[in-house]
Specification:
There is one protein chain. This protein is of the alpha/beta class and about 250 residues long. About 45% of the residues lie in helices and about 10% in strands. A five-stranded parallel beta sheet has the order 2-3-1-4-6, with helices on both faces.
Length: about 250
Amino acid sequence: MSDNGRRFVLLMPWGRVGSNLVAATLARSPDIRIDNEPTTRVRTFGERDGVPKEDQAQQQLAELETFLAEDPDDMRAAGLKLSYRSLIEPRVYLARLRAAAVPLVLMTRKNHLKCAVSQLRARARAGAESTPWQSPWAVRAQEPKPGPVEIDPAETVRLAKLFERLHAETLKAVRRVYGDDWLSVEYAELAASPKSVIGRICDWTGLDQPETEDLPHRKATSDDLSEDVLNYTELASAAEAAGFADMLSRAPG
């Protein structure tokens, strides 16, 4: 951990990479505060109200400077959970973090098809009038596992290709700015051994691992997509035609 005020960043190319689990687990500690996707809030606001992207970028950087300048005397660490997709000027933003010696954890998910399925299942929950879940994007450990739904195969493939592109762009930008001085966390590894991976994140960022035996969130989508997609045969056919056949496996990811 750097001496710049106990800061750290969790960066993801896009959602559905396990960042909610990590952020919620860390936030259980009274010594850790995490701001959840502040750059996404800025970009969404700007697109809706017609604010020029240049102004959105300046707002993102201004909020970052506030984050870097504040002195969190009442806590041990302050972190940002960010989506690369939300950054208007990603290399400028990352370069400012690097200049401030803020430790970076890059969370990725190589199985872009399952990532897309998870995204669409969460959207389906978000669009429901009434659900038993506090948030459609992160299912708490005590909440019921979402049941199977029908999803659009074409939209699934489109999102998988988008995530594939964003994954490559994020890696390129991080390597250009941070070199090799960052921690990589892959979703399959996190899903298989969450506590040990969170421990590794804590070691990298200089945090004390939260003292908890129970994880706050659970997986909302099974490794076997046929259990959670009602029109799985149709989805599998579209995935195979798009070159994602290997991502239909039942392995964690």
